[in-house]
Every structure is written in structure tokens, then in C-alpha cells.
Amino acid sequence: MFDKILIANRGEIACRVIDTCRRLGVKTVAVFSEADAGARHVAMADEAVCIGPAASAASYLDIGKVVAAAVETGAQGVHPGYGFLSENPEFVAALDKAGVTFIGPSAEAIRAMGLKDAAKARMEAAGVPVVPGYHGAEQDPGRLEAEAALIGYPVLIKAVAGGGGRGMRLVAGPEGFEEALESARVEALGAFGNGDVLIEKYIEHPRHIEVQVFGDGETAVHLFERDCSLQRRHQKVIEEAPAPGMTEEVRAAMGSAAVKAAEAIGYKGAGTVEFIVDGSGGLRADGFWFMEMNTRLQVEHPVSEEITGVDLVEWQLRVASGEALPCPQEDLSIRGHAMEARLYAEDVPAGFLPATGRLERLAFGPGRVDTGVREGDVISPHYDPMIAKLTCHGATRDEARAALARGLAETEVAGVVTNLGFLGRLIDHAAFRSGEVETGLIGRELEALVAPCEAPGLLALAALAALGLNDAAPGEGFALWAPLSWPVVLLRGDERIEGRVAALGGGAFAVEIGGAEVEARRGPEGWVLDGRPAAARAEVIGGKVHVFGAEPMVFALPDPLEAAGEAAGEGAVMAPMPGVVRSIHVREGEMVAAGDRLAVMEAMKMEHVMRAPRDGVVAELGVAAGDQLEAGALIVRIEEGAA
After folding, report:
1. For residue 120, which of 198, 193, 6, 210 has the smallest C-alpha distance?
2. By three-state DSSP, how is residue 8 classified?
3. What is the pLDDT of residue 23?
4. Is 382 helix (H, G, I), strand (E, B) or coil?
């Protein structure tokens, strides 16, 4: 076993690795950028080395700096986590040259699976089923469009060097192919330095099921499957293990295929073989196909650990330090069910836009919590906006789902917009409850999943908190001829919710809000609404009213002294968040139509296309390609008129 390792990562995965190292008595070295000087992983590690400024390219992605930090601190091994350099064969080669062990697969194994087209060809040769498609080297647009027609629409355009949904476009018919191809190539070139793509048949009722594998460089075992079908923008939201509806026959077939894939490339360490599965009519042994292999630990590995009792990071350390595979296949078994939810700082109704801000409140409900932040930390625009992963286990799927629902409902976050309420609604959706999960569920049900909650009881709690009535101080008397009452206004975006609260005496109040009336009375453990204990609570934090519970909500309070700012104008296209302008597609004086692409902005590892809000002429360009923008910065102004 190693005496000391360096963790070439940040956030929750760095903290996760440190937890296992502490248990095993292995000392840890953290690396950090200037933006992360006060981060949780830095505080947890035995040593820490600053490797550069906030930009990932100058810090976490700088191979020379990371290798130098490992050598200078005497680290015997480097754990890459996921993301950043975790699947970079040049990083592995640089560590090998420096005499430091990479805690993961060989550079050759990473290269074998790094390009999707070559990986699929290799898997097909190894007897692993692959999706019908074009994986050839010829990249002429005409050839690609012809291949798409032969495969049959709908098709997926996928970057050969891609991952995490970047460089991927779904094309429903030939009329959309050219624009989708251009967009995928631009994004892939910017993200991976390689604009080549492949074309695959799109499975119309797809499920995303992956198999956790672990190898020692010669042989491999699998630790069963995970279902990761609940996705948005091809990024996972909820993961669970085992997969709903899985049979022993299909599990054996998928496990065998995954092990073949790992052994075909001499895989060493933890990896994941991802399959696209036809979800129509139940799972079948001939209804799954190889998608890709992630040659690293996955974000969702906790669900596999929860059902197997295995610490995958410990296995990584042991095998990388020269020990044998810790467990044969026959000794691995499934115990119960586990679900994981990814809690992000993001504005779901606004299109899952990443959010920033200070975590003024951060408290988690029951369950396993993997996090890299603490209350008081800042979610910055420089890195992935994940706050935490909450994983819950139960004897059955229903028990695991109920435990996760409780864990989410009892989690409290203030100061940053999150997807917490969206997650709660998602796992309460009838299709999810019944196990009918597939990758299109969120897209189809998005309107219902993000609709504002209008529950009168929750609005009443917010109104009481806004007036400072949570504590038994004001509001206990009567005016001369009528009960004391106070107007209240709650702001939810552009929506103004008005109400009135009247004191009834004895700690009771009549709350008129949202077109309904609620009687609220203080009980020994909180508010009682219309005779029933409230299942939520509200509190003013940072000048806003936060409702915590299964339907978390945030309301601003009007400031009567604040002067109204000048409107930006309906033709102004503003930066919705901090980010970098990747490309500009119009010039001043150019005529545009509503919906035309104006610019492409990148923020928190995602591409956002800015489109014209109306027909008109480009009157002003406020930015240039490469500019770093703050939220609200003018990008383009469109005015009526002719060029």
C-alpha cells in the first residue's frame, strides 16, 4: 500500500478519495488553484500545493505542474478522480517517466477507449455488441449526411473524442443535419481539440445502463449495473443500482460483455462500460449495445458501493500498489437498492443555467453525502457547479426511493439557486416510481417538473416568515375595532404575490395568500396549518424568504426605497451568467430574424447559444470572441429597421 498519494483533482471527488486514504492510513497531498485556496479538499489533505490561477488550463489541467507537485512532495501515486486529467494518456506517460504510479489504467488502455470510433471497432472485434452507425475516418459533410440517410433518422452526431454530452446532437430529419453537424464540430473542437464525429442510430426509447468493472491488467470482474437513464442535456441527474426491470439473464449478458471489453484492452483499475439499451417491451439479452467506456471512476460510483459493500477507491489503491484483485466474481453480490441524486447550483426553469453565489445555508438530510463544499463557501463560475451527491440505500427500490425523497426534503440550501425541488419532483414522478425510466422522461415532463408550486400552505409559511412572525413576539393583540393585520408581498421572479396576515390571538393567524386562506397556529414543534402540522418551514436568510421542505422555494422581498432601474430593452441579448464568449456569428448592421444564432457562450463546461429575440438589425455588438463576461453584460442589441 502507498504511504502518500497526490490527488489531481478538486471538489467532492478529492474529498471522497481523502476519506478512504484516512481510513487506510495513507497520507494525502491536495493540489489547488488560487480560486480554491480555501476549499474543503485543501483543508482535509495532509499537504496542499498551489498549482496556478483559477483557469483550469493553467492549474488542474497543467500536466507539468501536477507531476512536479507529486515529485516535490514525495507522493508515490497520483489519483486522478474524474474529469480534468483522469483520461489523459499523456498525463499517465508523464507520471511514468517521473517514477510516480498512476492510480488507474495504462496510457494504452486509455488511448484504446479515448476515440469512440476506434473503441467501437475494437469492441466489435472482441464480441461486444455495438450500435449500428458510421465510425469511419472520412469526415466530408456530404459523406456524413449520406451515411445518416443510410442508417435512418433519427440519428445522433457524436464527437469521437467526446464525453458528458459535449459535441453530441440529436437530428430528427435530413433538414436539420447540416446545422447540427456544424454545431457539434465547433463544440467538439473547442472542448477536445478534435472536431471529428461519428453517426449512430438513435434508439427512440433508450435507457442508459452501465456496468461497473474492475481489472488488474489481465483479468476483470464486474460489480453489476447502474441505471443512469434520467438525464438532461445528456448529463446524468439520478442514478440507481440495480437497474429497474433487470433480469438475471440480461444482467449476466451485460456483465459478460463489460468484462470482455475490459479484458480486451488489459484494463487495470475501476472503469465503466456504458450501454445504450432498448427500453421498449422490457430488457432483452439482445437489446443492448456498447456506447463507450469511461476509463476512470465515475461520478455515480457510490450507488455501486452501496449495493456491494465495496470501497472502489480502496480497490484502486490496492491494485495500483501491486496487490491482486481483492475479490473474485463469485464473491460479489447485490444487497438491496441504492439511488443517487446530483445536487447542482443551477436555475432549472431558466434551462438548467449554472448559478453562482455564497452558500449561506447548507445542511443535508439523511443518507450518504459526497460534497466538496461547506456552508459559507462560494460556488464560483470557474468549475462544475455540483454542490453534492446524496445517496440513499434500502432493502427494496421503493425503500431506497423513499429514503432519497426524505433526504432531499430535509436538505436545506440558501444563497444559491439549486435543482433541489426539481430532483424531489423527479423521483416522485409516477413513471419513476414505477421504474419506467428512459432518457426522454425529463424532456417530456419538464414543464410539470419545473412549474411553480402554488400550495397555499407553503405560501402562508413564507408570508409569516416575511413578516417576522415565526417567533412569538409581535401580533398578539387587537386593534381597537379589528384584528391586527399586515399586508405582505412575495416576489418570485417577475411574479408578485400579494397577501395579508391577520392576528387572531393566542398565536393564531389568518393568512390570505395566493387566492386562498389558511389558518396558522404556533405548535410546540412549529406551525400548524389548518389543523395539521406543517411539513415544511420558512426562514429569512440573506434578505430572501426560503421555504425548506419537499417543495423548496425562494422569494425576494420588495425594497420600497430601491429606485427602478432602466430597462435594458426588449432587443438586448444579455449574458445569462458569467462565462466566456466562444464565437460571434453576426456583424453590426447585419439583418437577423428571430431565432438566428448570434453568439455562443461557454460557462461551467457547457455551451449556450444566444439567439435573436426578434427580427431586426444588429445595432450594437458588446463583446468579441474570447471576452470574459459577467452576468447581465450586453452581448448584442437588436433594433427594428433595415440594414
Report:
1. 198
2. coil
3. 98
4. coil
Catalytic residue among 251, 296, 342, 401: 296
Residue 533 pairs in a beta bridge with 528
**Helix boundaries (H) for 364-419:** 397-409
* 272 within 8 A of 213, measured Cβ to Cβ: yes
> Taken in order 250, 253, 259, 262, is the CA torsion positive or negative?
negative
Where does residue 643 rank: exposed (0-12), middle (13-18), buried (19+ CB within 10 A)?
A: exposed
The three-class DSSP label of residue 394 is: strand
pLDDT at 559: 60
Residue 130: DSSP 8-state? B
How distant, in Å, are the alpha carbons of 199, 279, 383, 533 from that of 204? 15, 9, 33, 45
Maximum CA extent, the chain: 89
Q: Report the SS3 class of residue 11.
A: helix
Whether residue 490 contacts residue 497, with contact meaning beta carbons closer than 8 Å, is answered with: yes
The torsion region of residue 393 among left (phi > 0), alpha (psi -120 to 50) and beta comes to: beta
Q: How far is CA 385 from CA 372, 419, 494, in A?
A: 11, 11, 25
- Whole-angstrom distance, CA of residue 331 vs CA of residue 168: 39
Torsion (CA) 56, 60, 63, 64 in degrees, nearest 10: 100
Nearest to 237 by CA among 478, 422, 470: 422
Bridge partners of residue 391, in order along the sequence = 340, 368
15 and 370 in contact (C-beta within 8 Å)? yes
Grid coordinates given for 168: 453530441
Active site residue 296: yes
What are φ and ψ of residue 322, in 5° steps? 110, 0
In this prediction, the residues of the chain whose per-residue pLDDT falls under 50 are 473-475, 477-480, 560-568
User: Cell for 10?
Assistant: 478538486
CA angle 563–566–569, rounded 5-degree value: 155
Q: Specify burial of residue 60 (Cβ count, 10 A radius: 0-12, 13-18, 19+).
A: buried
The pTM of the full predicted model, rounded to 2 decimals, is 0.81
Q: Specify the pLDDT at position 235.
A: 84
Burial 187-219 (b: 16+ CB within 10 A, else e): bbebbbebbbbbbbbbbeebbbbbbbbbbbbeb
Instruction: Give me the pLDDT at residue 478, please.
Output: 47
pLDDT, position 564: 30
| Residue with the three cell numbers 438525464 | 231
Report pLDDT for 568: 47
Helix 11-24 to helix 312-320 angle (10° resolution) is 70
- Which pLDDT score is estimated for 606? 67
Interior/surface letters 471-503, b for 16+ CB within 10 angstroms, e for the rest: eeeebeeeeeeeebebebebbbeeeebebebbb
Residue tagged 422569494 (cell numbers): 555
Measure the CA–CA gap between 33 and 56, rounded to whole angstroms.
Answer: 8
Q: Please tell me the distance from the alpha carbon of residue 36 to that of residue 41, in angstroms, as a whole number.
A: 9
Please state, in angstroms and rounded to a whole number, the distance separating the CA atoms of residues 354 and 351.
9
Contact 635, 598 (CB under 8 A): yes
Q: Return d(Cα 361, Cα 416) in angstroms, integer.
A: 9
154 neighbors 171 (Cβ within 8 angstroms): yes
Strand partners, 337: 394
